[in-house]
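Example 3.2
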Amino acid sequence: MSGRDPRSWMWAEAMNLLEQADRLHRQFYRSVGHSGEQPRWEPPVDVTETRGEVVILVALPGIRPEQIDLQLDDAGVLVRAARPSSVCGHNATVRRLEIPYGSFERRIALADGHYELLEQTCVDGILKLRLRKH
């Protein structure tokens, strides 16, 4: 830091971290096009695997379990749903809109094989799928 004011360095570092967080947020909740009039988006997923199981976590903010359409085949899992807009009426002025809304579809590819759905739960906006590998 020779010759630099430590406060300006800290400020620059803080701004860099905020920009990085914003880029990561946009990456995770990226828009993937439009379906008619509704935006389409792709939720982030975590996939972990053991010898006998695959566990998939899908971030679905504001989506109730009964809204989720799930299809499982040997190639993977297809998760579909739609999140309604949170805009409060036609007279509202949107100051910031970061939580994705509209329809989405996410295909999660699986390794070759046959899979059986053991568990499907949706708690606190996270869809959890446990699959047994055969």
